[in-house]
Amino acid sequence: MGPYPAMVAGNDRVLGELWQFAAEDMPETLRVLDGIEGYRDQPGDLYRRVVVECSTEGAGAVSAFT
């Protein structure tokens, strides 16, 4: 994806970190990340926020924002 970190839909496995935040911290966490990424949920945004099912080694399957 050029100079941007990104994923696209597919069947490949992606190794990475899964971060967890307290539910009460999510609005502020997403607000800060949206500012960094320029995300406004508008056409032309460089990023999209998508929920995917992740398979983890310790916790099994969990839903996560990507």
Write the layout of secondary structure elements.
Layout: H1 26-37, E1 51-56, E2 60-65
Antiparallel strand pairs: 1-2
What are the key terms here?
66 residues; alpha+beta; two-stranded antiparallel sheet; 2 strands
Verbal overview:
This protein is an alpha+beta fold and 66 residues long. Helices cover 18% and strands 18% of the residues. The protein has 1 helix and 2 strands, in the order H-E-E. It has one helix at residues 26-37, and strands spanning 51-56, 60-65. The chain has a two-stranded antiparallel ribbon with strand order 1-2. A hairpin with a 3-residue loop joins strand 1 (51-56) and strand 2. The chain is globular and about 35 Å long. The protein starts with 25 loop residues before the first helix and ends with a strand.
What's the main sheet like?
2 strands, antiparallel
Low-confidence stretches: none
Radius of gyration from the alpha-carbon trace, in angstroms: 13 Å
Percent of residues in helical segments? 10-25%
| Form type | globular
Q: Give the count of helical stretches.
A: 1
Topology, number of strands: 2
Largest sheet, order of strands side by side? 1-2
Mean pLDDT: 88
Along the chain, the helix and strand elements come as: HEE
Query: What is the quaternary state of this protein?
Result: single chain
Strand content: 15-25%
What is the straight-line distance between the termini?
15 Å
Structural class: alpha+beta
Short description:
The protein has 66 residues and is α+β, with helices and mostly antiparallel strands. It has one helix at residues 26-37, and strands at 51-56, 60-65.
